[in-house]
Structures
1.
Amino acid sequence: MSTQPLRELLERAFPDATELDVLDRTGGGDHFQVVVTAPSLGGLSLVEQHRRVYEALATPLADGTIHELRIKTKGSA
Amino acid sequence: MSYSDKIKNVIDGSDVALFMKGTPSFVMCGNSGRALEALRRAGAPVTAVDILPDPEIRQDLSAISGWPTIPQVFVKGELVGGADIVEELEQSGELEAKLREKLGDGYAAARSEETVSLA
């Protein structure tokens, strides 16, 4: 899978994101790193912030499209 | 006893529980290794559980924690996160602070590593 469908899922989940990045870490289309910075994540623990990302990507996580996911989130603008 | 009960026993009964792919002496996944190394750097006493022997272990664990990926780290029953969070907290010093808060100042002196088999 290319990074674009994942990016779209994240953009829908975090419309206020000031930073949103999806990297294919290995070029194989299944090991991804996502970076999300959004005010809507502010005040949440890292566990809760990562949960929001998992929820946004629930489908590609469940169907095995994403084999490995690294997440970096920030709650500020 | 079901896997769920055994998993809950480990989560609630361990100072630091690490659910991982493989064991500390034979790590089967890079992310599990990253979490283990971060915990080691922080001097954490680790109780490790290999989730690979039976797919049901992982399913039951994720149902309990609401966390979809492996590894998963718990301190005194509380989900701290996966490899990314544990690494980030270790680098910022927050992991040590949390361990000190939950386990007491001398936690690193009691440093230990054990592996629990659920299967």
Note: The domain at 3-74 of chain A is CATH 3.30.300.90 (GMP Synthetase; Chain A, domain 3).
2.
Amino acid sequence: MMRKKNRLIQSPGVASFLASVASIGIGLLFGYILLIFIKPSMSFYGLKQILTAGFSSSEKFAKVLYQAAPLILTGLAVGFAFKTGLFNIGAVGQYTIGTFFALYAGVVLKTPWWVALLAAMLGGAIWGFVPGFCKAMFNVNEVITSIMFNWIGLFLVNLMMANIPEILANHYGAPNADRTANLAAANKSAIIPKWGLDKLLNSDYINISIIITIVVAVIIYIVLNKTTFGYELKACGLNRNACVYAGINARRNIILSMVIAGSLAGLGGGVYYLSGTAQYTIVKSLLAMGFNGIPVALLATSNPIGIIFSALFVSYIQVGGEAMQPEFAKEVIDIIISVIIYLSAFALLLKEIIRRVLNRREAKLEREAQAEDEAVVAAAQKAGIAEGKGVSK
Amino acid sequence: MNILADILSATIIFAIPLLVVALGGMFSERSGTINIALEGIMIIGALFGCLYLKTAGTWGTAHPQTAMLFAILIAGGTGLIFSILLAVASISLKADQTIGGTALNMFAPAFAIVLTWAIQGQGQTTINIPTWIRITPEYFGLATSKNPGFFETLLFKNFYLTTPIVIVILLVTIFIMYKTKFGLRLRSCGEHPQAADSVGINVYRYRYIGVAISGLLGGIGGLAFTIAAGSGFQSTVAGYGFFALAVMIFGNWKPVRICGAALFFALFKVIGSYTASIAFMPKFQGVKSADYIYQMLPYIVTMIVLIFTSKKSRAPKAEGIPYDKSKR
């Protein structure tokens, strides 16, 4: 019984989980030390906000879920490409283009919300297709293409928004021309439904997007782990040459992988900006939500189910980070997350240590058990000998 | 004529950070480590370089170029120290190189913001660079004319100590890479580390050195970028670390070509802001916010060039693969 339990702890999944927990613990400790350095008197307050603000009220919790939904999707966009051996640093661009498609459909074409979400996926897919196509056909490094397309996407969206008056807020009576229309004024049917979650959590932020994204994550998990297509994709990631040798069309798989990743990131833009609470503002720098998909995916080692939890975690401490302003800059959270990711580079080392500790314990138990067995055997032998002796007598 | 001098001088000042950072990336990749953390390294270098310039005060005004030299050394030194974090993760611990790089890229801007808040007070996120760092004609005993001519504009409009230093770095790089034993060994570690190891080259040591040089040059590049951008340090280098990677690939991991690629990219970056004064450039009348079209231009051009040159492009063969001595 005891030994069975130990074997469970020793399984690789549990070891990685323990390693992640250790990384998170060290990252938070690092953040706390940083807070002490910045403002010792408020440091404990800061830590308390990071750790508890997300659960402090139902509105805050709603915000955690609201921000987690796009994070799950951008995390999946990065993680899915990772599984196929591609580093999709272009989730930002795909997210931005997805946002534009969703808003164009919802605000200008007045489609219902689910059509706008499909449009967002289409936009992201187009923006994922190009780097995939360049990688597969011309062997251009997808990291460089994706980075170029992040900026092209950002400027293109800004250019188009500026030239489509029907999409901007001032077309619907609002004073600002630098952001997109409030959906409540432009097209109520484009707002993602709330199914009473808003009343449950007493917040306008929450809607069914968190449910949609969890379903998407599960679908991605099934595609990757239970289908031939997913197997081929992963095989291409592990060894492209072996794949081609085995008759898998590696080029097609690279393109498909980027298209799917792109559509996931695009959907992320859709669920965020169709909430009815967010308005896209014309900006000059890339959106952080798209970049944060990278740490989310890395924290979960690209496992789709793990990404749900890592996105919830990242969103939770980000809400905590906002709550500790103005005492501390909320960027402390980014530092904590970066330390956690950096430590995941030590994951192998940590896992090794955990395994060694467990092994030592198991070895000790085994020795004890063995000693016990030996004692029984010895006793039996002794008894046998005694019996024999008795017989001989 | 003066507009041409303006454009050329702006091109050079923007090409300098790209060139030096791309050269840094080349050292790292030629030794076998993909340094995606250049963006973060630039930010750290710029942060400490600018903090030093800010604190130099009256001593700095009295000895501007000595202070500037110190700032460059501090920027390079802090960049180097920061890059060692990447080296530990990706060389000693054999972790995926994108993980360490992403962590550093995320850490640097956040750290810069937190530190500038802590030093300058809440919400003060810009570190202003003093104006005395610019090299004026007076340094050479020349008078500044009221209407500067072609050469004076070209040379002195945007002349900072970073420019000559980076040019020297370029020349030294060419020499080290192709004329020294060290360069040959460094390149061999990026092509076939097992073979290098078999003839007694310490692959780990060379890779550490490669990453450290990229940290040094990346830090200097961060300061050079902040000077070029001209609006003080705002905890960002606007993606220049990533552009430098593109420039490096575009330059085919070779120093002279990288220099050409950096100038090319910088020219397209700069030209957009001069459309109003150049007669033959299309103005896109009737399109609102047409400057976005020109802002997209360098990226689109680079993409097209990359597609056409990629057939000939050859990355170091062993880059991105952690070297494991026990796997021969």
Note: Residues 2-30 of chain B form the longest helix (29 residues).
3.
Amino acid sequence: MLEPSTSAAIDPNSVRKVVAVKAPQDVAWRVFTERMGAWWPLATYKIGKANAVDAVVEPRVGGRWYERGDDGSTCDWGRVLAWDPHSRLVLSWDISADWQPDPILNTEIEVRFIAEGKDRTRVELEHRRLDRFGARRDEMRRIFDTEGDWGRLLESFARLAAAT
Amino acid sequence: MATYAERALDALGDPTRRLIFKRLRAGARSVGQLAHGMDVTRPAVSQHLKVLKQARLVVDRPQGARRLYAVDTRAIAALRQWLDGFWDQTLVAFKQAAEREAAERKA
């Protein structure tokens, strides 16, 4: 479902993803920003101690990006660095390599919504400044990037391991 | 350089450690409780726990005179993230939600 990146050179400090979405640009933008809690895989990708029930992006530059737990607690993921409705969003990702909040980490996620006709949107995501993970940059880059067949192979191993 | 996830998978490559890990998923246990009903000695269980702890799959805490071992849920999350590819999985979930929304508007 995801297209391979078009750029041949691999930037060690950045991960790029492109996804073609059969939805108008404004719908894609709204689902991404206003309804993140409805699609973000909160069961696995959450940071706080409580069970996460929502993911929220405050709709303004300087706004918080956070998860909300079932006990009402919140846990910051980052900040809104750019807010250009329907076309471009930049968030900081302030989660350490140990998956703990780190307000000064400041890696960046840029998401571009490019209309391709009235019912199609090309969504480009770049997670950059991974050098801020320091010695654990390469490890984190592998986590954020796809693992392809290698990942699937290990997944079946993990399933086998769980069933043993 | 092995990642935490790779170390975790290596540690789970041993069937006895997988069994110990599986038992801990049901709740925290002491070495004695873990060894009970297993075909291994308590020192052997301790040794396996040490490997699981080094792989960051298991955490321990003192409780009275003994130690209780439990699964480190952060390790499980890291393992899943590594297996799935963080942004691929997240963007596929987004794509599905946006397309569902677009289809509902059309209907």
Note: Chain A touches chain B through 47 residues (CB under 8 Å).
4.
Amino acid sequence: MDVVSLSRLQFAVTSMFHFIFVPLTLGLSIMTAYMETRWVKTGDEVYLKMTKFWGKLFLINFALGVVTGITMEFQFGMNWAEYSKYVGDIFGAPLAIEATVAFFMESVFIGLWIFGWNRVSKKVHALSIWMVAIATNLSALWILLANGWMQHPVGYELKNGRAEMVDFGALITNPTGWYKFFHTVTSGYVVAAFFVMGISAYHLLRKNEVEFFKRSFRMAAVFGLVSTILVAVGGDFSAANMAKTQPAKFAASESLWETQKGAGFNFVVIPNAERECNQLEGLCIPNGLSLLAFHTPDAEIKGLKDFPREERPPVGPTFVSFRLMFTLGFLLILLALLAVVYGRKDTLESRRLFLTIMLYAIPLPYLAAQLGWIVAEVGRQPWIVYGVLKTAAAVSQSISPAQVWVSLLGFTLLYGSLGVVDIYLLTKYSKKGPQ
Amino acid sequence: MEFQVIWFILWAVLWAVYFMLDGFVLGTGMLHNFLGKSDAEKRVLINSVGPVWDGNEVWLLTAGGATFAAFPKTYALMFSYLYTALLLLLFALIIRGVSIEFRGKGEGAGWKQGWDIGIGIGSFLPALLFGVAFGNIFEGLAMDAAGYHGSLISLLNPYGLITGVLFVLLFLVHGSLYLSVKTTGDLSTRAANAAKKIWPALLIVAVVFLIVTAFATRLYDNYLASPLLLIVPIIAVSALIGMRIFMARGASLLAFASSCVTVVMVVFTGVIGLFPNLIPSNMDAASSLTIYNSSSSTYTLTIMTVVAFIFVPIIIAYKIWVYRIFRAPVSVDEVMKDREAY
């Protein structure tokens, strides 16, 4: 493999590993903050127990999110030096702002929250976890504005041999960035909601601390239902935006080869990239795709054949990831809806099958989030910055395949061990229950 | 003042503050297995930096982010040229962070010993590698129009290693003094004694460093051109000596304050010598990365300046507030009683 493929693989491994921890942080910080606020307001000790139990799991996860995040910043320079040189003038700014505005706030207030139980008032303590929650979400905003720029570059001009920022306002109001932000943070809330519901289900199945876990489950169910719906709404906006700004990615996501007016949505599709067609298509909703993309039934959608072969993203992974994410999204809405209904009826403990499903559903939102990133990043290929810079031209010139092999191997081993430790600790503290 | 110069100063400040703050965390980590005689004492050491280590490391991320935003070409070339060294640094920092966070979350001697090793190595390696990296930057990297001609081995040249040892000793003393302030009783006394023991070695290496710098680098050119700048290295050396005087008087807090000044002034001494280079080339002066040939556009620098001038004071305010909340020393009794402690 060459430096480009190796560096892409390494970026995929390190960013996907990082993104195991980020979504839970985004959602669980808010849930923990809410629990502590309830405690401060009502004085109900169950909420304090909830804060401490879920907060502990939050911290185990948070630690790995922090340390794996450093890698992301280093890698742009280490592996993607040509990219960094070419677009640093506009791409570096949101990254530096992320550190300044969000990372400091997050790291300082998490320290205060962990060690401040006996040193500050209840209110200040609750405030500090809110600051963490706000900061992690702010951090997501800035990094997604940066990624949004890679998907749909705005506010720049090509001059002095590079992309230079000419309109900061355009960068921070880039609709693509905001859609991504909305879709991504809400998907993080879903991850957290199903995490809390799944672990609560585990204990409810064993009749441990029933009141505690019923309350946790119900709270997460409501949060989960609202979030799954918001993810779908954000996903709809994102898809429509993608059809407009990244038509090749959209065509690949749907495996659409021929340009069509009033394109239908096929439930069954088997793409064949070599022959530039679909092996099989079936169960069609007429005009479905045009409605999805442009919210009008007769809209024309560009097919992959209208893009030169070298400017098409890999259809297989983009299409499969998109479909799977989409399907999981609807499944999660259904599960969250049932969770709210059963929680309201107070029949949770007797629904053993449902609780078992919820326990094993913990990984599903994680999977959906990872698939979403595959659509976003693989679907953008061969571009690293859509229409501006190709991925192949972005890689560092001074590094050798051997160097990247070593680093890739190192990351795999180190991250593999950290993953084992993380699962061990999360399982241990989850099973232990509140003290 | 030109924006490039403003950002050069901010760049220097970010690195200086990073080394001042993470310096004592790295120092504490290097001392972890030597000062901590029991599990309880090791926990005191971890808890003395527990609330602040993460916030301190963010200065590194910000220094990196600021380099990216303000001097993208320097960021790109520095990180790709020093690929393997930075990879080691990254792994070490990851291991240190995880070790601090996870040591207290499991039981058993094996679990704790494993993370103790992680804290030791994860603190020693970054201290050494940062020194080696800055030593090499002071010397200039082997780069020309064709690219970079060095390797991990070539970075480990005598001057790079001297700078590495300087950083290690500086952070050891800095960390010991921090612990002498932040711990109590016997542990605090042992930390103060460790500082006293390491200090002579630091002084010797610092003198060697200052002499060798005259031959290995061109850092002194700027000082010869404007002798007024010599005030910075003079403050650095005075603070280094003052630190020992305060130690002898048992004034731990003043000794630690002096070591803070020393760290900051050592960084400034080097960076002033670099100006207007960020990374000089030792092969071809035209290939040096300067604040002018590697900077972002004036537009980007203006935006970033506004952001920095709004947010840095806010950050400093809440950091000081949190440091004040945790200003009390950490004791063995307290750590054993507190269930939330690490």
Note: Strands of chain B lie at 143-144, 147-148, 277-279, 289-290.
